[in-house]
């Protein structure tokens, strides 16, 4: 990781966590338990890649710090909600998340479901507030685009396909590379795509600029997922903070099982180069986004 990216990640992660703590306060009322579970699931560390992408692109379009941080925090709330629900026994049944007990293990299943629901709805409340952006049209676009990215044709739909693929995998009817690519573009890529476009939306950038960022995000998201699949095979569980080898144990088709280790690594590198090529229009303004590609390809957790 470059020194510039390392410093930027540290600075922006701290700023997002401060904003998240402010947007999800501790409260003394009876519903305070769900706030406690929300805070547990959002303030427990993590890579903060999605909010970082929001902030990095917002900087490119001179967006105010408050607008950028509120939008970045909303994206992280949606991401954390998805992790809370993915870890549930009815989904991926994971007991660990970010090196700590998963939300349903720390609290209980009902509280985890409610905490995920609350994070998702709070995210849209934050985006819709005038303090996120003075222009109602911008706020509406943010709400609409994040809803599409997170909904049945995005992250939720991708999770459904993933669950179906796992069941089919047990009968040796798993997905092929094309179907796996589509699934991960829905499940992971569309939220990353929104994160990369959010700064341009806030800055009212023209459509062609948004398209360049969307193309970058498409390739970055797929590279991220391939590295995830590689880490499930080769990663260190202590560094990852979650169980290793679950995909193989569940009989899931992954980029690694379909392509093999070496071809999967080659594909991740090729996607990284392609992602960088989409940033030519930005010159040095996108230097951090170029560095993010290297970070994604080299990550160990």
Automatic annotation (TrEMBL):
GO molecular function: metal ion binding; prenyltransferase activity
Keywords of this entry: Isoprene biosynthesis, Magnesium, Metal-binding, Transferase
Pfam families with a match to the protein in the record: polyprenyl_synt (PF00348)
Parts of the chain that traverse the membrane: none
Swiss-Prot/TrEMBL GO biological process terms: terpenoid biosynthetic process
Domain of life: Bacteria
Protein name: Farnesyl-diphosphate synthase
Organism: Haematospirillum jordaniae
């Amino acid at each position: 990781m470059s020194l510039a990216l390392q410093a930027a990640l540290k600075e922006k992660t701290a700023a997002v966590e401060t904003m998240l703590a402010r947007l999800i306060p501790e409260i003394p009322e009876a519903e305070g338990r769900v706030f406690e579970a929300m805070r547990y699931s959002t303030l427990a560390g993590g890579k903060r890649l999605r909010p970082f992408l929001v902030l990095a692109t917002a900087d490119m379009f001179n967006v105010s710090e408050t607008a950028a941080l509120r939008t970045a925090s909303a994206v992280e709330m949606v991401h954390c909600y998805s992790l809370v629900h993915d870890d549930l026994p009815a989904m991926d049944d994971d007991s660990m998340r970010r090196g700590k007990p998963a939300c349903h293990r720390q609290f209980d299943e009902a509280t985890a479901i409610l905490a995920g629901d609350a994070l998702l709805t709070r995210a849209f409340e934050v985006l819709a507030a005038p303090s996120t952006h003075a222009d109602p049209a911008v706020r509406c676009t943010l709400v609409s685009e994040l809803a599409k990215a997170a909904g049945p044709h995005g992250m939720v739909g991708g999770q459904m396909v993933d669950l179906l693929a796992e069941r089919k995998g047990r009968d040796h009817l798993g997905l092929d590379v094309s179907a796996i690519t589509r699934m991960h573009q829905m499940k992971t890529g569309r939220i990353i795509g929104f994160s990369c476009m959010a700064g341009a939306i806030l800055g009212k950038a023209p459509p062609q600029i948004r398209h360049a960022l969307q193309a970058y995000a498409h390739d970055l998201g797929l590279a991220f997922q391939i590295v995830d699949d590689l880490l499930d095979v080769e990663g260190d569980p202590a560094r990852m903070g979650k169980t290793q080898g679950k995909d193989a144990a569940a009989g899931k088709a992954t980029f690694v099982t379909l392509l093999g280790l070496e071809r999967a690594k080659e594909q991740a590198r090729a996607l990284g180069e392609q992602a960088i090529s989409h940033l030519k229009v930005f010159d040095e303004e996108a230097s951090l986004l170029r560095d993010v590609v290297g970070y994604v390809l080299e990550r160990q957790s």
